[in-house]
Amino acid sequence: MSQLRHDPIQRRWVIIAEERQSRSTDFIPHRAEPMDASLCPFCPGRERFTPPEIMAIRPNGGEPNASDWLQRVVPNRYPALRIEPVELGRAADGLYDRMNGIGAHEVIIECPEHDQALADYPQIKIHNLLKTYRARLVDLMQDQRLRYVLIFKNQGEPAGATLQHPHSQIIATPITPRTVAIELVSCREHYRLKERCLICDIIQQEVTSGERVIYDDGAFIALAPYASRFPFELMIIPRAHSHSFSEASDEDLSLLGQCLQETLKRLRLALEDAAYNYVIHSAPNAAARPMRPGYWLTLAQDYHWHLEIIPRLTKMAGFEWGTGFYINPTSPEAAAKFLREISLG
Amino acid sequence: MSQLRHDPIQRRWVIIAEERQSRSTDFIPHRAEPMDASLCPFCPGRERFTPPEIMAIRPNGGEPNASDWLQRVVPNRYPALRIEPVELGRAADGLYDRMNGIGAHEVIIECPEHDQALADYPQIKIHNLLKTYRARLVDLMQDQRLRYVLIFKNQGEPAGATLQHPHSQIIATPITPRTVAIELVSCREHYRLKERCLICDIIQQEVTSGERVIYDDGAFIALAPYASRFPFELMIIPRAHSHSFSEASDEDLSLLGQCLQETLKRLRLALEDAAYNYVIHSAPNAAARPMRPGYWLTLAQDYHWHLEIIPRLTKMAGFEWGTGFYINPTSPEAAAKFLREISLG
Hints:
Chain A is an alpha+beta fold. Chain A contains 7 helices and 15 strands.
């Protein structure tokens, strides 16, 4: 099974997930060949090529793993983390720290169609996808070993997608990832100082200035962050304070679907169908154990969930790897203006 | 000029460096075409296509910017940061923080040859390159506005290199980048607790186990870090404690050159000439102002400089962006074993 390892210099956890004995040829990068759609493991009729499903939408009430589905959730066939062993197995390794690769790694097959873009989904389909995100988040948070659940989508090969068929992924981890932990601390410290939410304050400033806003229907706002790392990096944020995506109502998800689709349509027109990633940043699992009393709870309630979209236009180079510092050639003001002025026809 | 901006949620500085008015076509990613070598701005005879040189090696004592050089250092033609204005111009922008894009961005043209690999350089050439790194580091640290100087190399297009001609880069910044700041704090806290250097302790553990070591001549060690983020990620570390690359002696640099070349040769054979980045992590500029008394000094002396090599085999996807957490399919033990067993012929 895989292992989580901690780097004491960088204070960073890494998942070492060796799937098979290392052979020389496994190390060499190769360009992904476009797959023949008739071989796609996510297409209807090929359900036997995925592990048995966790949940599915079947309006006609068919059997699990039959072909009459509109959406399926299955475990990842090559999971980075597995749910099985009971113990986390935390241990020292001399100076280092490690634990078992416990967690979950799931794939949401968004629809039977092999190549429909999310921006073009009928409204019911995007709504169902977001409701499934929420359902999996709520379910995985029952596991007290899991501190964090990340929902994300890789669209296009440059964004790391290895299969073309529309799908999202979920990875649940026994630690809170660093990126989220920093956001939690920022939000908590701002709240302690001001008794206001940091992200609520940001929304207010952005709405007042307007120069980085792309979409605002009063419920959800899409904006280019002030210190965007990448050209056309965007955030979608619920305007009403809410720490967890698991608390979004059906109506919220309906409005989020509209906001997400319009934003992705604008990006597609602006960037000629560039690859992208999106991730949902929600509060960590308040039920996780061991819990310092009130710790996660406080953090969670100071937090404000949001969705981050990163178009994959630029390459990471030595400077970015070496520093965690980014050089962005496109200001968020220019990106937002360009996206606002796109005609959706 | 460019601007440094701070993200209050992620607590991260970003350089917004707009080179030109944004036009739609500037946003769209295009594949780099292999450049006709006769158009290369770094080849001898084309010195007018770079800004005037900062330093050069000319054994025959020619004029600056003449064609008889063995190595040149020039300002980057499209610099992310510039040295010119006197003031940092720190300012609030509502909730946000910004400052002027002060710093330096230099290119080291390593040799007249258009396509020689660093692993194949004659010994004098790699030695000269490392001595130039040191000279530029020492010189840039005279500027009290500059807190950090990063020396790095992008080799190959997937690693972010836009020109084929062998070159390295230097970026000096008015803040200490986050990645380095975390390493400094780790080293300082370990020292306070143990009165020993964290990285010296790691070297001792790695030498004792040996399973992640690729090269060890008693002066420099090359190893695959315990919690490697990427397949075949490597570190080269001087075995004797030293906080700054600026303090390396000529003899140190000669031994480092041998270690670096042998390591890159093994990587090339193992990974079929894969692209890579390397970066030198050295202590921040102890002369930078304003300085909290003793702050940088303490940090600097607890630190232990090293060089990090990242072969570019895998793609960053949504999970990595969303969490700062990495999934590595190759254990460092497997990578180190494979590299050790490569025959250099």
